[in-house]
Structure formats: C-alpha cells, structure tokens
Amino acid sequence: MNIFTNENYIKDQLKSARRLQLIGVVLLIIAFVISCPISLGLNLPPLVIVLAYPFLLVGFPLLTLGNNRLRRLRSIPRADLQINNELKGLNNKYSLHHYVSLDGKIIKHLLVSPAGLLVLESRDTTGKITCASGPKGDQWRVRVGIFEQISGSRPPLGNPSRELCEALEQAKGLLESINKPAVEARGLIVFTRQEDLEVEGCSYPVVPLAETKSAVRQILTDLGSGPGEPSGVAGLLTSEDRRRLNARLAPERPPVAAKPTPAARSR
Q: What is the pTM (predicted TM-score) of this model?
C-alpha cells in the first residue's frame, strides 16, 4: 500500500495550539499589568478594575485550551499512523492519503482503490459515545463534564457524520474531475481510542480502531461486487486513473536545491 501524509497539516495544528498559548499569555500579562497598581495599594477608578476582568476571563481559557491541544497532539497517538498500522497488507494497487487539502478543506483519510474511493473520518474522543438517527440527521453525543468541555482537556466530538458527508462530496467531485462520475465513494467512521460505541441507525458504518481492517475489506468487497456496480471500466479506477489521483492528492514536496557541479565549485 502506498501511503502519503500531508505533514504540513500536522505542523499547522501545532502552530495553532502554540498561537492560542501565546494569545492567552499576552492577555493574562495585560490583566496583570492593569491590576498590578491595585495590588500595590494604589487607589484607582473602579473602571480600571473592570478593564482587567475581560483580559483575565478570555486569556485563561485560551491558555488552557492551547496547553491541552498541544498536550494531546504530543501525547495521543496520531490517527494516520494508527490507521496505517491497521491496514497493513493491502497491495500497491491501494493508496492511502492522510489530511488531503481540497478546495480549502481537509479530508482526513482517503483510500484510493481499483473499486472506488473510501473516505475515513477519524475521532480520538473518549467517553460514552452515542449516535442516533433523527429528523435533522445523525445526532452524536458524548458524556463529559462541564469543566472538560470548557477547558478542552478532551478531544471534541463534533458531528462525524456531517463532516464525513462533506468529505464524500469532495471525493465525488474529485472523481468527476477525472471523468469518473460512475465510480463510487463510500465512508467509514473510525474511533481510535474508544472501543464501546452505541450506534442506532447511523448514516455511516462506525467502528473502533481494532475493527477497521475488517470493515474496510468489507466495504471494498461491496464496491467491487455490489449489485448496482456499473459495467466495464466506467465503474472502476484503472491504473492510469489511480496514478492521476495520487499525483493530484500527494502533498507537495519543498523544492530541493540543486547541488553545484564540480565545474561550478571550481570557479
């Protein structure tokens, strides 16, 4: 299996966490500077005291949020590496792309196969996680404390179904761009750190990390032998199609400076 990872996405996540830390520290310093004369016993107008509170109330949560995000990024095993390990054994006809940037949006994990595309939406959320279908789509819930929600000490759950649906639309647009609109794109939601999941009528299959490989193999089998499969190469990705997709999806590599030739060095 060919594996491509957009490392710039990981770097951007780290930069974002550090930026939150920095903003939080700056706001706390401003609050301290404003309140410092008060702590020294100086009589200041009440308005000055009031001005310190917004900086304190905003700065402390931002600093905590940045610290927790940075801690998670450094301590929690990366989802792409975990999925790579689970899908070992697929041959070179398959290519797995992580954190693909398309039209300003990110597809977390995209598997290119001869039978079609498989989009994986990963979550490292822990806790009691439930998904139930409703009139407004899938409703996801995770039971966490109020402090954990405010501080960001646990990874957010969001709505994996909604994000997977958006990623699938991007994947289908990608197929149309190479004149393969008949090829299917399917989705799978993977929880990398939570084994117990309560799923009732969710729009997409949901599995823990340990069941990822069997779920992927089943979806790939369905893609290749489903009753609605179009006939001929119109419903498949040829080696040329996969080459074009991989070339488009692979992250750009920074240019490498050319080494001077012996003649150039001697000048």
A: 0.81
